[in-house]
Design goal:
- The chain is built from eleven helices and no strands.
- Helix 3 runs antiparallel to helix 5 and helix 8 packs across helix 11.
- The chain has 253 residues and is mainly alpha-helical.
- The chain is globular.
- The protein has one domain: Up-down Bundle (Heme Oxygenase, Chain A).
């Protein structure tokens, strides 16, 4: 864990944040390596999509929580585009709807996914922890917690290429969510990063920004820990949670 002993320049702060992603972003998790490498069964991919839905539907809730701490109308107007990206607006169905279509294409019933009845308890806890963090954090720190978007395009590219290449049950329409995020995430992070670099001026502020990014990478990592323990090894699926027909680690081709 990084502990500052001096104020960083804005560029030094950005480099420090980039280093956290290189070390701790969840594209490094063993579960994602299996997912992108085509080593999971259909049931295991279903479990991932189902549990990830909890995080997807929580994103606009998180953004509303951040906006509740924002007294500036201009900033609120800029930030709410993120909410539209996920909830949808006008002719854009939104990211949550695209994720639900991915789940349906994998063979999951929409109502079951939306109910979140079969989701792992650890998944719900991780997402709730993140939303509550954003609800109570100062605006600067809420913005900083979203900076995992710095690293998101890489993982989306890996998912698109890996899932299309390695699973015969995945087609182009099923990766629509990830293709949209290839343009949305860089736009979003440009604003958040500029804000953080401009407003984190003291050691305490910069340390809080760094700690917020550590927290967020931990939230994402914890969700994959839960998936790995439940659906890969040792296969400890909690009572009442989604149980796929097949959970062994094998390429579904």
């Amino acid at each position: 864990m990084i502990k500052l002993n001096k104020v960083l320049s804005p560029d030094e702060l950005e480099q420090t944040l980039q280093g956290i992603g290189a070390e701790r972003y969840h594209n490094l998790h063993p579960f994602h390596k299996l997912l992108h490498g085509g080593k999971l069964s259909l049931g295991q991919v279903q479990a991932w999509a189902l549990n990830r839905y909890v995080y997807q539907q929580g994103i606009p809730i998180k953004d509303y929580a951040i906006l509740s701490n924002c007294p500036d109308k201009e900033l609120r107007n800029l930030w709410r585009q993120r909410i539209f990206d996920h909830d949808g607006i006008d002719q854009d169905e939104g990211g949550i709807e695209r994720w639900l279509k991915l789940c349906e294409a994998l063979g999951l019933e929409r109502a079951y996914v939306q109910s979140m009845e079969g989701v792992l308890p650890a998944t719900k806890h991780a997402v709730d922890t993140y939303i509550n963090f954003c609800r109570h954090a100062p605006l600067l720190i809420g913005f900083a917690s979203c900076l995992t978007e710095l690293f998101a395009p890489k993982i989306h590219k890996e998912r698109i290429a890996g899932m299309l290449e390695n699973y015969d049950f995945v087609d182009e329409t099923m990766v629509a969510y990830f293709r949209e995020r290839l343009t949305q995430a860089p736009r979003d992070v440009d604003f958040a990063l500029r804000y953080v670099k401009e407003h984190a001026r003291t050691i305490d502020q910069q340390q809080a920004v760094i700690d917020a990014l550590y927290m967020k990478t931990g939230v994402l990592w914890a969700q994959l820990d839960a998936l790995y323990l439940a659906y890969v090894s040792p296969g400890m699926i909690p009572p009442g949670c989604f149980t796929p027909v097949q959970t062994d680690v094998a390429a579904a081709q």
